[in-house]
Amino acid sequence: MQELQGGSNTILTVNLTTQTSSTREITIEELELFLGGKGLGLMLYAETAQPHTPPLSPQNPLLLLTGTLTGTGAPNSGRFSAVTRSPLTGLMASSSCGGPFGMALKTAGYDGLILTGAASTPVYLVIHPDRVEFLDAASLWGLDTDAAQEKLAPGRKDGALVIGPAGENLVLYANAVSGHRHLGRAGFGAVLGFKNVKAILAKGGVYKIVPQDPAGFQKARKKANLYINRNPATSEMYREKGTNAHVLLSNLGGILPVHNFQENHHPDAQKVSGEFFKEQYNTTPSACRPCTVLCGHKGTYPDGVHEIPEYETTALFGPNLGLFDPELITKINDRCRQLGIDTISTAGTLAYWMEASQRGLVKSPLRFDSGEGILDVLDTIAAREGIGDDLADGSRHLAGRLGGIEFAAQVKGLEIAAYDPRGAYGQGLGFAVANRGGCHLSATMFPLEVYFNFLNPYHASGKAVFVRFFEDLFNGINSIGTCIFTVFAYILESPIAKYTPHPVLSFAMKYLSRAVLPLMDVSLYSRMYSTITGIQLSPGKFLKAGERITVLERTLNTIEGVSVKEDILPSRFLEPSSHGGKTRSIPLKKMRSMYYRLRGYDAAGIPTRKTLDRLQLRSLVESYTCKAVQADIPKERIPVPEYTPEILPGKALLKSVFVKAILFVLGRALQYASKIDPVIQQEVQQWPEGYKVVLKVQPDGPGLGLERTSRRRLHSLGSRLQPEAADMVIYFKNLESAFLIFTTQISTAGAQAQHRLSLQGDIALSMSLIRVLDRIETYLFPRFLAQRAVKRLPSIPVLKLHWNRIRIYALGVLLGF
Questions:
Q1: What CATH number does residue 588 fall under?
Q2: Do the domain assignments include residue 760?
Q3: Are the C-beta atoms of 258 and 265 separated by less than 8 Å?
Q4: How far apart are CA 625 and CA 754, in angstroms?
Q5: Last residue of a domain, one of 589, 615, 641
Q6: Cβ contact 81:94 at 8 Å
Q7: Quick one: 535 and 601 in the same domain?
Q8: Domain span at residue 170?
Q9: 677 within a domain of the structure (yes/no)
């Protein structure tokens, strides 16, 4: 077996359309900035893809990245990450998965795999160290995930990643399965299904991954295992009861979802608790390799051995649907795995459907407190048959058609996990601002608030600080390739946290949160990373890399239109409700504003230029946003509702008047300038006669129409011309965006990068229009303002500039010539 120090730093790219492959080397600088795993995946996505790429299209790449720790024997390091654009949300999707695939891919000599294009017929890939095989998957197509993995018959050191019927039929929350672990959220199975990839088999065991500093690595590894083996959560709670230990803790703390989050506590919760599963089914560990936490369990049932459902599955198919039969929930869990569908989104969508039926919005035999028909409907979802075709699109899309968005338990289109945010305000903020949607693994706040009682669950104090901290920490963890459950041990077993009295630590976390953060010891993560790669990474740099990853993901989403309006919870959770013996409501706006300030986002939730510069992201973001949007986008194989985020409405009268005045001046100035300026005339001559252009402030703001006349000049049509009658449209996202651009507080290029400005029309003519606008702004604005508005000032002799400026203002703007 050959040795690789730290890893190969090689990414394999497979073009499914042409059935070819190539490799790309990862530089030390890229590895230091983005760590590996998820971080490297987001960087490579920005490098590979284009803005506004439809999720179910050949242009949407899917990236599978191992972590720095993967394959090294570090505790809990048998993991890999995936990145793509989600068909469920339309936003960036990421997922971390255990199972054998990641380790097999890395020991086959690759730190990651990028899938581009789409195969014309179903295929499966076999990844060898020196080649990629493209094999006919006709015999695998239609098989469930268990049968497909069995037929592939991977060797002891190999790893398979497969999809089930749900992925083949493009269920928007279909997942991919490796062993009995899942790329569970946001529709990775559907993306693979669209690409006609049934399975990927990595032939591992060829290389041995060794650290650059073996002695230092073994020292850090020994300390990590010591912490894991003495921490109560990782050595007792999860090992003995699995993640279902959360059931009674959540029930006691008033955050257990019941009947689609209509309630938060149920007297029968004990029937599906971790304690009950352990006693009733004699559970034993069934974990990823190598794992020392052992949170996954299997049990002996009357009909044989089954995987014990994880907490999210148990809580959301159990109390949240009113079901307390552990054997039925286990059957549901097995069937979801075989079909290849995410249990959180499936259960959340069914809960919405049941309440919609309860309210008379739809007729359905599915009811709360009844398991009748549940197993059958899973099959219809995976096949997209009958009501399953509707359910396969998720709760947000259903609510968009049926109504009831206020009780669709989702954020940004992703169904939320099994923790009621009304009983844990920090978790509510975490759900609202999570980049991929309603995710509990973006910032896991509920243990601090409810289980360990470090933070007051009903107070805003410290919540924004800790949400930001955990987002950065978890993104770092998912990038180096280990399990986030190690956080309980690595941080809480460090001397300061372990030996500080609980009341003192709790007080400091509540009221001195920013001062407490430097005391959070994350050095085990950075130490293992450094000893493996040879790159010296301090704990501070590790967290900064996590911050860089968080902000990059956020920026890619804001380019797609995400803003403060999407950082919200369903109104069910924001209305006053009885929690903790009092009527309360989540102070989301207050926490969110503090979070934006800490993050370096503007009031709309968009990362500022200063933030991008500080995190060394600006060049990557500008390169991504400047890519030309392809004119011909292949149609998706099924009609999938597009993601259309709300647009911030403009309410300020003075800003509206100002923008209208600027558009009036701009129209008259362009009309006259096209008569006297030869450069503008040359540009306009390229446009067909009668060509119409509209500048429009969305959604219902002011606009300006322009038409190219037979005399090869521009004629201002004022606000009469509507976008649908134009050949080209420049959209300002909202009134605020138009105001910032016209007051030169943000440049045109910056507005495009922040998705405040978009353009529809012929690319070549759009570039001509931009040059015309740059030139007229040079005439209209003094030089110091024009430099802020225009990326590159046109070269105009000084005397000509001032003479034309006087004529444009006097004869064009004032007199309308």
A1: 1.10.599.10
A2: yes
A3: yes
A4: 9
A5: 615
A6: yes
A7: yes
A8: 2-210
A9: yes
Is 657 found in the same domain as 605?
no
Cβ-based neighbour number of residue 377 at 10 Å: 19
Across 39-79, the runs of DSSP E, i.e. the strands, are: 62-66
pTM: 0.78
User: Hey, how many other C-beta atoms are within 10 angstroms of the C-beta on 655?
Assistant: 18
H/E segment holding residue 68: none
Closest CA relative to residue 793, chosen from 779, 814, 813, 810: 779
* Same domain? 608 vs 660: no
Do the Cβ atoms of 344 and 185 come closer than 8 Å?
A: yes
Q: Which of 279, 276, 296 is nearest to 287 (CA)?
A: 296
C-beta atoms surrounding 185 within 10 Å: 28
User: Could you give the number of structural domains in the chain?
Assistant: 3
Tokens of 34: 């983005």
Give the chain's mean pLDDT.
90
Which comes out higher in pLDDT, residue 237 or 657? 237
Is residue 786 within a helix (H) or strand (E), and if so which, with residue range?
Answer: helix 783-789
What is the pLDDT at residue 635?
Answer: 36
State the maximum Cα–Cα separation within the chain, in Å, rounded to a whole number. 93
d(CA 817, CA 552): 48
What dihedral do alpha carbons 506, 577, 362, 313 form, nearest 10°?
20
In sequence order, the β-bridge partners of residue 84 are 93
Task: List, in sequence order, the alpha helices (H) in 677-715.
Answer: 678-684
Single residue among 615, 645, 677 that ends a domain in this structure:
615
Of 593, 601, 569, 250, nearest to 434 by C-alpha is 569
Q: Is the pLDDT of residue 20 over 50?
A: yes
Nearest by Cα to 404 from 254, 584, 262: 262
Q: What is the reported pLDDT for 649?
A: 35
* Same-domain status, 609 and 663: no
| CA angle in degrees (0–180, nearest 5) for 335-336-342 | 175
Can you tell me the distance from the alpha carbon of 237 to that of 613, in angstroms, rounded to the nearest whole number? 43
Q: What is the pLDDT of residues 205-219, one digit of tens each?
A: 999 999 999 999 999
Q: Is 513 helix (H, G, I), strand (E, B) or coil?
A: helix
The Cα 100–Cα 71 span in angstroms is 10
CB 287 within 8 A of CB 76: no
- Tell me how crowded residue 601 is: count the other CB atoms within 10 A of its CB: 24
Q: Could you report the per-residue pLDDT of 724-761, keeping only the tens digit for each?
A: 778 888 888 878 888 888 887 777 766 766 667 777 77
Give bridge partners of residue 174 from the DSSP assignment.
Answer: 341
- Asked whether residue 642 is domain-assigned, the answer is no
- DSSP SS3 for 132: strand
Alpha helices in 206-322 (DSSP H): 214-230, 232, 238-241, 246-253, 274-281, 311-317
- Do residues 607 and 660 both lie within one domain? no
Nearest one of 75, 79, 6 to 224, comparing CA atoms: 75
* Tens digits of residue pLDDT in 97-143: 999 999 999 999 999 999 999 999 999 999 999 999 999 999 999 99
Cα(261)–Cα(531) distance, integer angstroms: 46
Q: Are residues 429 and 572 in the same domain?
A: yes
Residues 690 and 606 in one domain: no
Structure-block tokens of residue 332: 């549901």
Beta bridge partners of 285: 297
Radius of gyration of the chain (CA): 28
* 521 close to 7: Cβ distance less than 8 angstroms: no
- Evaluate whether residue 25 is within a structural domain: yes
